[in-house]
Amino acid sequence: MSITAEVIQKDKQYSVPVAGRPDFVLERGEGVTVYDTEGKAYTDWVAGIAVNSLGYGDKELMKVVAGQMDTGLIHVSGLYHTQALVELAELLCANSFADKAYFCNSGAEANEGALKFARKLAYVNDRKNKTKTVSFSKAFHGRTMGALAITPTEKYQAPFKPMMPGAVVGEFNSVDSAKEVIDQDTAAVVVEPIQGEGGINIASAEFLQALRRLCDDHDAVLIFDEIQCGLGRTGELWAHSFSGVSPDIMTLAKPLAGGLPIGAILATDEVAGAMQPGDHGSTFSGGAVVMRAGEMVVKRVLSAGFLEHVKETGDYLLERLSEINSPHIKDVRGRGLMAAIELDVPPGDIVAQGYEHGLLLVNSGPDAIRFIPPLIVEKRHVDELVEKLTLILEGIDGDA
Ligand SMILES: Cc1ncc(COP(=O)(O)O)c(C=O)c1O
Fold first, then answer.
1. Between β-strands 201-202 and 194-195, what pairing exists: parallel, antiparallel or unpaired?
2. pTM confidence score
3. I want to staple 190 with a disulfide (CB 3.0 to 4.6 A). Which of 223, 280, 281, 282 is the partner?
């Protein structure tokens, strides 16, 4: 039996079947390309779901991780100080609205923690009824029970009801709807400045500004979930910058440690000040190897020319995608290297054909393909993508 066949068979036998994986086995990566066990190359427009922003095999990242491993200090738990943790916390605070950082291990965990921070603030202010959490249509905030409760997709929630009480949903980008759902009992308002899983939907500056005002008026904590859209993906360090307003909390995860598991909650002193020893924690929080990787990634994103490259390549991606002449494309949208084409055919069919053409693609919501590549992707990769997508879409025309 080939290695490919053996891995696929064992996956069927031993893995909990929560993911439908295609019939190839990835073995190594370099730059923006991954290779399977048969040696086939795939240009990666997924980046481990918006994670591998430095691509594969970044020499500096590997050196930093190996260097920290060499100290023997991989993990010490949150019980002890490490230089690695405070250096990443300082770097993130120095480059954002935040005064304090808390580290965890995933996006969902960051959002869980953020909800607790908001609830604790209400609690110390003696506002015991202030327990409502507002999120918005098509949002995705994660799959743990709190994060799931604010992810209003019926198919994700249905088997796991009842949800956490007090989760209320407004309409994304509707100021009127936000006014209706945010009130004195609202502890937290959570929003993605650009929705990643829900179809690459960009919040308007007006909407984010209105949320800021409504949160101020009702003493609610405004949480920007930049787990997918943050840290350079839009060509700005933070996706919300264009709005001119800052949140009280921002959650980060995916790209922050170059592919190692991480989450972060960045908060103002006011919010963080409500948290006391024992209120929150996680065994793996702030592991030294992960922190060193995070510091290196943030410094790279801040280095000269990096964000300009994202912006320029992102503009080119949108321009070239808009040029594809196919009746199946209903819309092209995005910002920086976070883009989507909305289709009138199932995105799964295009993703499957992408594999045959040596492309890794992923859907966003039920009717769009999303492009969230490593941020080091180049214009020549965009040209290859557009050429192959055009062929795939023409094939679909032929079938029709
Ligand atoms: C905006 C956003 N928030 C939260 C999450 C959950 O992150 P994780 O899968 O690391 O738990 C995701 C994951 O796709 C996301 O895109």
1. antiparallel
2. 0.98
3. 223
Answer yes or no: is 336 within a domain.
no
Instruction: Provide the angle, in degrees to the nearest 10, between the axes of the packed helices 306-323 and 288-302.
Output: 70
Q: Tell me if 113 is assigned to some domain.
A: yes
CATH number for the domain harbouring residue 133: 3.40.640.10
Task: Tell me if 195 CB under 6 Å of ligand 1.
Answer: no
**pLDDT tens track for 47-66:** 999 999 999 999 999 999 99
107 lines ligand 1 (CB under 6 A): yes
Summarised one tens digit per residue, pLDDT across range 124-168 is: 999 999 999 999 999 999 999 999 999 999 999 999 999 999 999
Q: Is 201 in the pocket of ligand 1 (CB under 6 A)?
A: no
Q: What single DSSP character describes residue 151?
A: S
Q: Does ligand 1 lie within 6 Å of residue 190's CB atom?
A: no
pLDDT at 398 over 90: no
Cα 39 to ligand 1 centroid, rounded to whole Å:
31
- DSSP secondary structure code for residue 176 in this structure: H
Query: Residue type at 45?
Result: W
Could you tell me if residue 116 is inside a domain?
yes
Count of domains in the chain? 1
- Give the closest residue (by CA) to ligand 1 atom 3: 141
CA–centroid distance, residue 399 to ligand 1 (Å): 36
Q: In the block, which residue shows the tokens 């929630």?
A: 157
140 Cβ below 6 A of ligand 1: yes
Distance 37 CA to ligand 1 centre (A): 29
What is the enclosing helix (H) or strand (E) of 135?
strand 132-136
From the CB of 141, is ligand 1 less than 6 Å away? yes
Report the C-alpha gap between 295 and 68 in whole angstroms: 12
Within 8 A by CB and 6+ apart from 69, the residues are 289
Q: Which domain holds residue 115?
A: 84-302
Q: Average pLDDT of the chain?
A: 97
